[in-house]
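Troubleshooting: if your tokenizer reports a length mismatch, compare against these two reference records.
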Amino acid sequence: MTVRLLTSLSALAAIALAGIHGVGAQQAPAPAAAAGTDFAAVPGGEFSMGDSFREGSPVELPVHKVSVGAFVIQKQEVTKAQWDEIAAWGHQHGYTDLAKCGGKAPDHPVQRVTWYGAVKWCNARSDKEGLTPCYCTDAAKTTVFRTGEKDIEQTWVRWDANGYRLPTEAEWERAARGGLTGKRFPWGDTISHSQANYKSNAFYAYDVSPTRGEHPTYDDGNKPDTSPVGSFAANAYGLHDMAGNVAEWCCDWLGNYPTEPQSDPHGPAAGSERVTRGGTWSYYAWTARCAARGSFAPDDSSHDIGFRLVRRQP
């Protein structure tokens, strides 16, 4: 299974011919201190969500104003070692079907995890640490999601709980942009292998890497070609790998953007595919843009997909 690109090759060709458009940047506001050394604080506020360059697919438009409350987000993607630790605990505490999942090494991102598996793991870590789990299997929010596959409705999520969950798509893009406005990537408008683990291709004018194809440091003939988490510089919010390495599950079902401003949106009420963000080691720079949207069915798994955690601001 590979990441589904939400555009056609002909559309990409048109994008490449358009070249690079410059959009001004704003200095990122200084984030507040976050609880826990592995999490960083993202300040609440308004940002422009979507593809301001108009070089993506229609589902990245229109650009619209979104305000989000303050939250904390994991600085790095969940590692294979972290997954294994919580899964082992979960097997003894009601989370009996947490899968083994994949991971190239303990300090690489976990992958081959379904959306169902990711949210159950969020609940398991919350339970283990004495926090209130976020994902429930009923509208009354009385039953914690621990086993099986359940299409969790957004109204079944305890959004005000202090436990762990996946970021909403709006939270993810807010965090990835690092306080910058109108930039393709978490650091600016161009990308190279010195900044991220992705598949470089001269087709994209903004891909300025002197090395092409998969990242030469991690392309060792033993798939997946992931990199240890935190191998590249963080963005202004202190977050690593918001572009490349593995795509990351979000809470939301995939749907079209609204035209009107939104406040703390949770995405459509229902759908058939859950959103992934961030690009991967095996796909091109186009998918690593802050605005790029991918999607998978929630029972899909791939060596391209992992996740990271958020919590509400303590």
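Reference record two:
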Amino acid sequence: MIVVIGASGFIGFHLVKSLMNNGYDVLATGRRLSSIEYYKDNNIPCIDFDITNKDDFKKLPTENVEAVVLLAALLPANVTDYKTNKYVDVNILGTINALEYCKNNGVKKLISTTSYADVSGAWEKDVALKEDTPRNFSYSGDHASYIISKNAATDFILHYNAEFGMKGVIFRLPPVYGVGPHSEIYVDGKIYKSGFQIFIDKALTGQSIIIYGDKNVSRDIVYVKDVVLAILGVIKSDKALGLYNLSSGVAITLEQQAKDIVNVFSKENNKSSILYQADKNNNSKSYLFDISKAKKDFNYMPQFSNFKELLVDYKNELNNSDTIIFFKDRKKD
């Protein structure tokens, strides 16, 4: 059995669906009533679960658990008010609770995620950062407490690997693209429409897309289906251990993203034009990650490293009935 903690979230939904399609027994956990009802309506075992509550771990099975996938986390994009203790409770203590459950019940594999921003100070165009790049990030801003909490969670997983012989794996994730409730995000407690969604909305209506600042800023992103593919790979692997960069391994420029979005989402007779305002900063830096370790240890080969192919699949998923039902009336996870 695979236990998915955080199955009511964006990645969790896509993961549970894939695990079921691959013949795994799954126990989904979450806190959103609509998600729990969806899983039960589809004959997928699901329980209401709070990662910060030690007693809730008594609800989980004590035998025949092959792996725990820990996706429950508190992210700045979902936070309306800035309180450090929330990050500590969910991201650090919640991870320790999950690790203790695994240790006490003989579950060797725990798969979790961390932030790509832990090395944001080392981001550089066309320089692929490896897993051993020293941490380098800002201690100010709305992401600081989040990054600190995820770094601590990562360190505890590595500690349990070393001390108790676990096989914990952590994915360092850049922004994960895919259909879900994140067209709007919070920045410093204020809600904004994501740049990706703005580009798509403009393309759908034939409006001009404006690129601010450097059009050649390049980003290494990852599609949710490739994240799921990687999780499946780790579950099957005997080598997977520790921290892995998990991305497409390819950097795409802001200009190329805009061009591909126009090609996929604009109507033939009403194509969006692309305008440039180089004098207005876009507040973005280039970044790229080396994914060779993931390829070597669990045969990770991203299927959507081509951004246009990613967009085509994304567009198809917008009409997927299961996806529509699951994320209906939910603005964020």
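Descriptive notes for reference record two:
- The chain has a mean pLDDT of 92.
- The domain at 2-179+219-249+285-306 is CATH 3.40.50.720 (Rossmann fold).
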